Amino acid sequence: MGALMIIQAHITDLEKFKAYSAKAPALITQFGGRYRSMRGDNEQLEGPTDNRKIVVSEWPSKQAALTFWHSDEYAQIKALRDDAAEIQVYLVELTSD
Cα angle at 81 between 84 and 93, to 5 degrees? Predict the structure, then answer.
């Protein structure tokens, strides 16, 4: 069953964050994920406005996303975003039709 990784990010240091965002897409692809929404404008329909960016990636399974998330390769890239953003990450398993 597929899964979505949903990231909400408030970028606090754009220049520093660029190093992370330059490397993450290739690694996500390498681990079987693909972006469904990355740099588009978000329209907030409810709740207090906070100007966070939303990034959604799709994975063949929850386990594939977790394998990526806990990999040594991602740990190295993830360190590039330290002190550059406030981030919340959700992993949602898709339901079958």
Answer: 115
CA dihedral 60→80→39→61, nearest 10 degrees, is 10
**Structure tokens, 94:** 């898709």
C-alpha–C-alpha distance, residues 36 and 4, integer Å: 9
49-84 pLDDT, tens digit per residue, is 877 889 999 999 999 999 999 999 999 999 999 999
What is the rounded CA–CA span in Å between residue 41 and residue 31?
Answer: 26
Token code pair at residue 15: 């220049």
Distance CA 61, CA 8 (A): 21
Distance CA 41, CA 58 (A): 18
